[in-house]
Write a structure and sequence with these properties.
- It contains eleven helices and no strands.
- By secondary structure, the chain is mostly helical.
- Helix 4 packs parallel to helix 7 and helix 9 (160-171) packs antiparallel against helix 11.
Length: 207
């Protein structure tokens, strides 16, 4: 009985490692040559696995992208960021903490974001997953609004929807992608977006 359990554990570990290798390789190939131009055979060659192994463990190209999205979505830094924002006692500190967490997640996941948007153009299942991912991400941002409203110097004329929109405008997918594409580095992008959001949501002393 113990031997069978041990062997089962070893098989599970090997399968997990193989899955990770396949996903890492798929991400590299999709990034290097685009979703449409990449084939399962190409991924299998670079991952040093059989084509049937990819289909059996994950599925086709669309399923590979969906698995990459799910892996990024469960990044533990998201929960850590939200917890950190909730422990701040000033608006500026809260938005700087939020900006840093979003930057860390975005920097880590930028290739996945680019691949999922590329694949969404031709794969309805991926397009649906992208939409659900955006909704989930926006819900995470929205969850900080109550705390932001409770901090000193909050602009009372802003209703909840206005704050939600401001958070999406500064910390959604688009601003990071746009500024990085313009040649900004991650540090500059992080600090600028945090500053602009602070000025939008709180009464900021005039210079």
């Amino acid at each position: 009985m113990t031997t069978r359990t041990y062997r089962s554990t070893r098989r599970d570990e090997a399968a997990s490692i193989t899955r990770a290798v396949i996903l890492d390789t798929a991400l590299e190939r999709f990034t290097a040559q685009g979703y449409s131009a990449t084939t399962i055979a190409d991924i299998a060659t670079h991952a040093d696995v059989a084509v049937n192994t990819i289909y059996a463990s994950i599925g086709g190209k669309a399923q590979l992208v969906l698995a990459l999205i799910e892996r990024a979505r469960t990044d533990p830094s998201i929960t850590s960021t939200l917890d950190g924002v909730g422990r701040t006692d000033t608006g500026r500190a809260a938005l700087e903490r939020l900006a840093h967490g979003v930057r860390t997640s975005s920097e880590h996941s930028q290739r996945v974001i680019a691949v999922m948007q590329d694949a969404a153009a031709s794969e309805p299942s991926v397009a649906d997953a992208v939409h659900r991912t955006e909704l989930g991400y926006r819900a995470n941002l929205d969850s900080t609004v109550g705390h932001l409203r409770s901090l000193p110097d909050f602009r009372d004329e802003l209703d909840t929807r206005a704050v939600q929109d401001a958070l999406w405008f500064y910390f959604g997918f688009s601003p990071w992608r746009t500024l990085i594409a313009l040649g900004w580095d991650w540090d500059r992008t992080e600090h600028w977006l945090a500053l602009q959001a602070w000025r939008e949501i709180y009464r900021v002393p005039q210079d």
